[in-house]
Specification:
73 residues; mainly alpha; binds zinc ion
């Protein structure tokens, strides 16, 4: 299976780099949710648009936003 984001070799859905970025993203969301009550999609939008966020985190967030939109149809 290849990484859903960059197409590189992966063990699960993501390669090592994006897998790590994804884990960090999910962990950070827990904190945001507790502190700000922010929704998953809103959080992803923030991360995807924030220039202070790492490039990989932005790539993962943008990808997950597409999935969120898909799941609404
Ligand atoms: Zn990747």
């Amino acid at each position: 299976m290849n990484c859903k984001i960059c197409g590189r070799e992966a063990e699960g859905s993501y390669c090592k780099v994006h897998g790590k970025a994804h884990r960090n993203l999910v962990e950070k969301f827990k904190v945001w949710k507790r502190a700000l009550g922010v929704q998953w999609k809103r959080y992803l939008e923030e991360v995807a648009q924030n220039s202070l966020t790492g490039e990989k985190a932005r790539e993962v967030a943008s990808f997950l936003l597409l999935e969120v939109d898909d799941s609404l149809h």
